[in-house]
Design goal:
Elements lengths: L15 H15 L11 H8 L3 H13 L3 E4 L3 E4 L8 H30 L3 H19 L5 H14 L3 H18 L6 H5 L2 H13 L2 H27 L1
Antiparallel strand pairs: 1-2
Helix pairs in contact: 1-3, 2-3, 4-6, 4-7, 4-9, 4-10, 5-6, 5-9, 9-10
Length: 235
Amino acid sequence: MKERFSPIKPVSKDLLYMKIADAILDYIKENNLKAGDKLPSERTLAEQFITSRNSVREALRVLENENIIKVKTGMGAYISSDRIADSLYVKLWKVNYKELLEIKYLLEKSLVQKLCKSIEQKELDYLEEPLLQMEEAAAGGIYLQKCDYTFHSRIRQLGKNLTMEQMIDNLVIALDNYGKDLHGVEGIWCSTIPYHRDMFEAIKDGNLFKAEEACLKIYETDEQALGLVEKIANN
């Protein structure tokens, strides 16, 4: 084992125990630790991460479940495998994001179905306004995230179901928190603008099938963006 080690890096507090697990993985890789090598004590890890021993213990439990380490009572944690996994944080992040995205899709689709059955011209004009801005910007290769958000927010408002609107708003907030890690995928989201137009026209024409199809295409494109982020994270 090397006499001098790379420093253990502090981590932010979102999904803290998973990020600590990832930081320990980085520590193992950077210091070329092998099966049988011992990790620093829980107390040392907690001091380095500026966190509680409980959070460190939870992170070690995650690594043990992944068969990366073996915790021996009264002795400490030892590397049990020379094969080190990819980011556990990204693994959990992906599962959570995908599940939230699916719930949002199902709820929003039900509101779109409702609008297909009854919507007034002034409501259509209200809904089309951010869409026109998105289309104009997209012609110049620019994706206006704010207008995309406004378009979907107005669908929720026009659905006139306050409980469902609040539920989706909470999902959007959660997705936005995860979305902070979504970088370099603006081009993919820009490609959804024609589907937004399809959705609008389907609502206008009362075409339930085409509206559902547009909702699905937007959802599938969001999933593609998630897949791209995973590839970037693992490279």
